[in-house]
Inverse folding.
């Protein structure tokens, strides 16, 4: 949780398991209708605002750090979680980005086939060491 990066930003959460590694970012919009896609985010009746997903939440940085300390590829995807929303409409996202409501996060648990149990342990060990993130 709250992986600090040298530029003062942080990766909200890293989810590590057999299905890979995910940089997780949560946004709370109580009882709002949220629509995301085509590079925009619309909350309620507001005008759509530009909202680039790309590497905005640190997945690329996490992958570089983890692969620098592991002897195997460490794919890292992005998970954007909207909490408290009344509705969530996802139009399009980049292929490595998942947009979920808080109740849907558990759907990531059964994912497998990306990392072996030994690799999961290695990634977890690296991710816990703050020194590894100093050059991120």
């Amino acid at each position: 949780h709250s992986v600090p990066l040298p530029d003062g930003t942080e990766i909200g959460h890293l989810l590590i398991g057999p299905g890979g590694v995910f940089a997780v970012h949560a946004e709370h919009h109580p009882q709002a209708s949220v629509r995301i896609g085509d590079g925009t985010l619309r909350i309620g009746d507001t005008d759509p605002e530009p909202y680039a997903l790309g590497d905005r939440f640190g997945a690329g940085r996490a992958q570089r750090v983890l692969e620098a300390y592991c002897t195997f590829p460490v794919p890292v995807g992005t998970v954007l979680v909207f909490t408290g929303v009344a509705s969530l409409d996802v139009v399009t996202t980049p292929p490595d980005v998942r947009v979920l409501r808080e109740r849907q996060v558990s759907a990531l648990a059964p994912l497998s086939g990306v990392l072996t149990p030994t690799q999961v342990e290695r990634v977890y060990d690296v991710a816990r060491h703050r020194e590894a993130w100093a050059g991120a």
Notes: The two ends are 16 Å apart (CA to CA).
